[in-house]
Amino acid sequence: MKLVTVAGPPSSGKTSVILRAAEGLRASGTHLGVVKFDCLSGDDEKRYQQAGIPVKTGLAGALCPDHFFITNIDACVQWGKKSGLDLLISESAGLCNRCSPHIRKVLAVCVVDNLSGVNTPRKIGPMLKTADVVVVTKGDIVSQAEREVFAFRVKQVNPKAAVLPVNGLTGQGSLLLQRHLETARDVETLQDARLRFSMPSALCSYCLGETRIGPDCQVGNLKMMDLS
Amino acid sequence: MTDRDLLQWPCARLLDQHPYARDFFSACGNPAMDRQQTLGDFLAGLTPDRLDALGMDRTTVVEQFLAFIHQMQRLQADRDTAIRSVTVVGGHDKDGRPEDLQVTLSAGEMIAVVGPTGAGKSLLLADIESLAQGDTPSGRRILINDRPPDEAQRLSGEHRLVAQLSQNMNFVMDLSAHEFLSLHAESRLVDNVAGVVDQILQTAVALAGEPFDAKTPVTALSGGQSRALMIADVACLSASPIVLIDEIENAGVDRRQALGLLVKKEKIVLMATHDPLLALSGSRRLVIRNGGIDAVLDTSDEERILLQQLDTMDARLTTLRNRIRQGKRLSLTH
Prior knowledge:
The structure holds 2 protein chains of 2 kinds.
Chain A: E1 2-8, H1 14-27, E2 32-38, H2 44-50, E3 55-59, H3 65-82, E4 87-93, E5 107-113, H4 120-123, H5 126-129, E6 133-137, H6 144-157, E7 162-165, H7 174-182
Parallel strand pairs in A: 1-4, 1-5, 2-3, 2-4, 5-6, 6-7
Chain B: H1 3-8, H2 11-17, H3 21-27, H4 39-44, H5 48-54, H6 58-80, E1 85-89, E2 102-106, E3 110-114, H7 121-129, E4 141-144, H8 151-156, E5 162-166, H9 177-187, H10 193-208, H11 223-237, E6 242-246, H12 255-264, E7 268-272, H13 276-281, E8 284-289, E9 292-298, H14 301-325
Parallel strand pairs in B: 3-7, 3-8, 5-6, 6-7
Antiparallel strand pairs in B: 1-2, 1-4, 8-9
Helix pairs in contact in B: 9-10, 10-11, 11-12
């Protein structure tokens, strides 16, 4: 079974882009499924169900969503294999710009949108910089110049990636994304596989539920700002 | 120049010969740089905190930097390779009936695309944009300069063939017209940014009819002014050889002049329109029906004569519109 990780800031259009690519892939006989990693609520599951796509949702709740993702993704791979899928797409929201769910040797897609502003590519960290394919959405409502500047900025921070404009509403541009998804490698297990980049880390009193503020309550992996 | 040589260069020489490298350093947060220091030493000297903030580690920062330089060199080379023609090789319509034709669109040509909503105009454009190779629902194939495009280049998304201008598009950047155009010019790696920006501003003002200042925020321009700025920008700066126009509204832009500008800049202009004045301005019209190109109509001699009449009518309407705008009365002789 092939595996692809799709990540991107909230509301960048990940689900729409996946649904559009899925139409073409399923028409050519690919049996695909989705695992959706979310934080608190997950309405996207319904959109996949309506399209007749097998879907599982994982809610991270109080945990760092990326840590939650990586501790569950291999079980999801096993679920996908058991369900007889040809392709499993994992969708996770990059809730902080330091998120990085991409795994070595697993096709990595990052979805960003033109409306987020031309400085956004520089602000997003490894989730964008280590991706193989960067999908840029919402190009139909901004000027040609802004689209070109945005794509250029993406190329600056990730010169190796393919940068593909996709319209999540009409599906325009999703053909080339489908071609990329078809090239994803087969995965038996993610045991011993490695992340492309370390995840945001912390292990401090706040991770464990502390709510009070003050030096006495701060224990663990801490970093203080330089305000001098 | 090998990559290893490049890493031995002093930073000053690098910035001199590859000015765009400045962007890489600025994306790195502009850490203090000794101009005599070699690039390799500079990259090796980035602190772990800085690297972490960049989302890179010690080996990937070197790889990323080299990839960046190669990418910029490719973009610069691309700028100089002209696309003279785009050919659509017919596939089939929605019912599978063969679309038995081949249409070549040449630089500096304007073609109208006509047909009711849902006929398949968007599909044709999507085929061109994705450089279809018999793998879209229409089965069409697209040739660039009479040849099929390179598959690797196609997948990289590097050839952005189609620039779009539609009525739904807006400026969303919070910048003045001058800053905005400068940003676009820089991203196109043009040599004379200030010159190009001035030229576009002048062209846009001429198209809009109502002057605006270079300091005006792009989001504060009137509908006609922003449309004029978008057209002038696409004509002078866009990387894409094909311009798709989804109607140009009548208000605030000299439409014939706008089309003339795009054609003069050697663009291939495809225009979805049912306005006779614009449709007849083109050399041909592609008639789209049931997902296929049903016919290609050359503008006939009779239609050209009609176009002259339409031009006169349009000029009269413009005069009347302007008088209304100025608060004047109209008379039968205007």
